Amino acid sequence: MASLFFLRRKGGALLASTLRPRPAAWAALLVLSAFLFSAGAALGQEPRFNWKFATLAPEGVGYAVQIKHVVKPKLEEVGQGDIRIKIYWSGVMGDDAGIIRKMRFGHLNGAGLTGSGSIILCPEMSVLSLPFLFSDYDEVDYVRNNMRDDFESYMETSGAFLFAFIDQGFDQIYSKKYSFTKEEDFRAARFLTWYGPVEEEFYRSLGNNPIPVSFPRVLPSLKDDVGDSFMGPAILVVGSTMFTMFKHVNPTFIRYSPACCVIRMEDWNSLPQEYVDAYYSLRDGIENEFCVQNRRDDKKYLVALSKYGISVTRTDPETMAAIREKVKPVWKELEGRVYPPEVLEKVTTHLKHYRNAKASGREGEVR
Fold first, then answer.
1. What does DSSP say about strands 256-264 and 160-170: parallel, antiparallel, or unpaired?
2. Label partner for 37 (CA 20 to 30 A): which of 63, 67, 165, 262?
3. Which domains does the chain have, with CATH numbers?
4. What's the pTM value of the predicted model, to 2 decimals?
């Protein structure tokens, strides 16, 4: 079982045990790699397909145990030695936008994308990141289960196959100065925004003027005091060593972020049908396992950040209700500009159905 990374300060120095983060967005990419590469090795034949993938994830992120004991046994029967994957780690192919450009030019065959990259490639997916859309993961799962085919189709229109539709998770707010326990903090903070138009409009609706940067520029911008606050997943904060800059983290559920592993449609369509059929028989199990593990790990990372000395605070319900009222118009303001109105309507219809069933004690019937 992978060990947890505990962070702490002692005399101003950083002490750490083994770091083995397991981000869901990159986990699906590693699953694909393990499945395809091990299949070729098993048969000892030269692969017909040599694919190149890229991700922001650092090499050796600690998914080996999960791949070996959970995923690999399910996938060994699928491969026939025809595909080999080379993965470019740690953003060496650029940020998500740069990786997507290389895919479109055929320099890369696929990618493991963060929430930001997912909505660059598939703008319709940005609906899922609207502030206060989801209350918990049960709602996320219900919408994803009922709209996976929709998002697979949207992604195909963008020229990519949605191999794994998973979580980045409910992102946290981190800051060098603010705890975000009061509304004034949201106005005063100098937010570095990397996620796209939905995130930018969220900040502006609260009277903030965010500072756009690419993700690789977040840490340097924090060091240079260009900004002091950031919203994102714990895995990126820990994996990038960004945590050394922060004093506060607020895990109040404001934004859910999807993540995905994608393959160029041209490359996916070149696979034999039996490979495709085998993939569909295993897809749900792969995605569910990674989402479950990612959500567990997210809680562990917050504990680790607390042990390091970062103050964990939550916004009180009354303040959060006031913030919710201020940002709710963003949903409609972005219709037609960022995502089609019918996508938001479909998502909210599914949510209403689920919430009504839950209120009447029938949520088990609609999962």
1. antiparallel
2. 165
3. 18-168+258-298 (3.40.190.170), 172-254+310-365 (3.40.190.170)
4. 0.84
